Every structure is written in structure tokens, then in C-alpha cells.
UniProtKB/TrEMBL annotation:
Gene Ontology CC terms: nucleus
Keyword Nucleus among UniProt keywords: yes
PROSITE patterns linked: TFIIS_N (PS51319)
GO MF terms, alphabetically ordered: translation elongation factor activity
Alphabetized UniProt keyword annotations: Elongation factor, Nucleus, Protein biosynthesis
Listed name of the protein: Transcription elongation factor family protein
Localization: Nucleus
Chief place of localization: nucleus
Record Gene3D superfamilies: Conserved domain common to transcription factors TFIIS, elongin A, CRSP70
Region (Disordered): 183-292
Chain ranges of the TFIIS N-terminal domain: 90-173
InterPro entries documented for this protein: IWS1/2, TFIIS/LEDGF_dom_sf, TFIIS_N
């Protein structure tokens, strides 16, 4: 272990004491700000170090060594708002992004980040919190893992729950069972299909489309950004504006059909002649001799 790493560990031990043995009202705002900035700096540094290790084709284990930051410090109730103010959502999104070779972070990292997001209390009554979420691109990252086929069932379930909770909070959707049932029926049965055309885009999209757009801002991430990994195929819209040019030549088709038909007729005529010749020969053999 290098002297710099030892120094970082000592600093972290000192920072962990802030707010741990004191009540919230006794914590100094300057000390809390120092703690938050130091933790975020370590989160960003872990991302950069793992990226460099990956380029050198070495195991990217820096994030794994710093998981305690996500489990022991960020979830603390009296520190959460300070972390949100300093852009912790950007840092957590970076932890979910793919490495330079296109591989995704380890399962422990993904599970810990999703659990940390679930422990965060985000007040969507504040418009700046919604703006922070849109700018961070965290929604796009969580949405990716909610649909990623190779993700664990537990992580996919947690990612979907996060998206549902954020959606209800942003659009004031009631958590009452009957209200949720009516909302789902309205989404499934009563909403007419909307074609993705320029006129519809100008007129405006549905709430679900708006939410997807709001939660989908941010940088590219995940294995789909690498050629080494297969991406899930998406259905292609069939609303063509220009008819595709046909690759079939009608004249060539008719000429080929005519030639084929003549060949079939020639074979048929030959077969009929053979049958007639065989029948004529049989009649000649069966005719009795007049001298018998």
C-alpha cells in the first residue's frame, strides 16, 4: 500500500468521525461540506483509476475498494441533502457507466449503487431536484439496468422500483391501490396508440414519454456502446414516407417465366409422344394373326 493510499485512509477515518459521534445540530456546516466534497472527490477518482486500469487490461477494483463510501456515508439522513446539492447523482451515474472496453461494472458495484439510490430521499416538490436528475442522466442509467437481460433479477427489480417511485413523485401519482389500478388501466386500454410523427412531436407527448425523456438525459453507458457486446434489437417503424426502390425487374421475371413455361411444354409434349408410342406398340402386339 502506497503512502498516498495510507494518507487517504487516515483522512477518511477522520471524516467518518464527522457527524458520527455528534448530533445533527452539533455538526459544523463547514465540516459537513468538507466531508461531502472529500467523498465526492474520492468517487470521481475511483472512476478515473478504474478506467485507467481497464485501459492497461488490469482488473478495475478501485470502486470495489470504495464501496463503503456508498454504504456508510452517503445514506446518512443528515448528509443526504448536502450530497444532492453537491451533485452526488452525477457521481453515482459515473459509477454505473461502462469501462473504456465497453464492459459494465461488477455486480457488487451495480447492486451497491442501486441500493444507495434507493436510500436517498429526493424531494421532488423542489423543482431544482427534478432539474438535477434530468441533468445528471441517472434515470437513463437506471432504466438501462432495469431492461438489461444479463442483469440479476434483484437488480432489475430494484431499478424498476426506483423508476416507478420517481415517476409517481414527479407526476403526483397516488400510491393507493385503486388509484394505481385506474392509472394502469388508463395507460393500457384508454390511451390510443401514438405514432412518432413530426406533428405528434409538435403537439406534445404523453406523460410516460415525457418521463422517459426526462430520465433519459446523460452520457452513453452500458455494453451497448461497445462493438464487443450485442445490443437488444428495437422494432422499426413501418411508416415510410418514400416507397423503397424495387430490386425486381418485371421484364426479366416475365422472360424467365416464358422460358420456363416453354421448357415445361416441351417436356410435356415429349412425354405425351412417348405414351402414344407405347400404347400403339401394345395394340400391335395384341392384334391376332389372320392365319391362326
Amino acid at each position: 500500500m502506497s503512502s498516498q493510499q495510507k494518507g487517504n485512509q487516515f483522512d477518511r477515518k477522520e471524516l467518518l468521525k464527522i457527524g458520527k459521534n455528534k448530533k445533527k445540530k452539533e455538526s459544523c456546516p463547514t465540516e459537513i461540506a468538507l466531508l461531502v466534497e472529500s467523498v465526492l472527490a474520492e468517487l470521481h477518482m475511483a472512476v478515473e483509476e478504474d478506467a485507467e486500469l481497464n485501459r492497461q487490461e488490469k482488473p478495475a477494483i478501485t470502486k470495489l475498494r470504495n464501496l463503503s463510501l456508498l454504504t456508510d456515508i452517503i445514506p446518512r439522513k443528515h448528509l443526504q441533502q448536502e450530497f444532492l446539492d453537491h451533485g452526488v447523482l452525477d457521481a453515482l451515474r459515473e459509477w454505473l457507466e461502462a469501462l473504456p472496453d465497453g464492459s459494465i461494472p461488477s455486480i457488487d458495484v451495480r447492486a451497491t449503487v442501486l441500493k444507495c439510490l434507493n436510500d436517498l430521499t429526493i424531494d421532488f416538490e423542489q423543482s431544482e431536484r427534478i432539474a438535477q436528475m434530468k441533468a445528471s442522466g441517472i434515470g437513463k442509467a437506471v432504466m438501462f439496468y432495469s431492461k438489461y437481460g444479463e442483469e440479476t433479477i434483484a437488480n432489475r427489480k430494484l431499478a424498476k422500483e426506483l423508476l416507478d417511485n420517481w415517476s409517481r413523485s414527479i407526476y403526483r401519482i397516488s400510491t393507493n391501490h385503486e388509484d394505481m389500478k385506474n392509472y394502469e388501466e388508463k395507460r393500457t386500454y384508454r390511451r390510443p396508440p401514438v405514432k412518432k410523427t413530426a406533428s405528434n412531436a409538435a403537439a406534445g407527448a404523453s406523460q410516460d414519454d415525457v418521463l422517459d425523456e426526462e430520465l433519459s438525459q446523460g452520457r452513453k453507458y452500458g455494453p451497448s456502446s461497445s462493438k464487443k457486446h450485442a445490443s437488444r434489437p428495437e422494432a422499426m417503424s413501418m411508416d415510410f414516407v418514400v416507397r423503397p426502390q424495387s430490386k425486381v425487374d418485371p421484364e426479366a421475371v416475365r422472360a424467365r417465366a416464358k422460358q420456363t413455361g416453354q421448357g415445361h411444354r416441351a417436356k410435356l409434349n415429349k412425354k405425351m409422344q412417348q405414351l402414344k408410342a407405347t400404347k400403339r406398340k401394345q395394340l400391335q402386339v395384341a392384334k391376332p394373326s389372320p392365319y391362326m
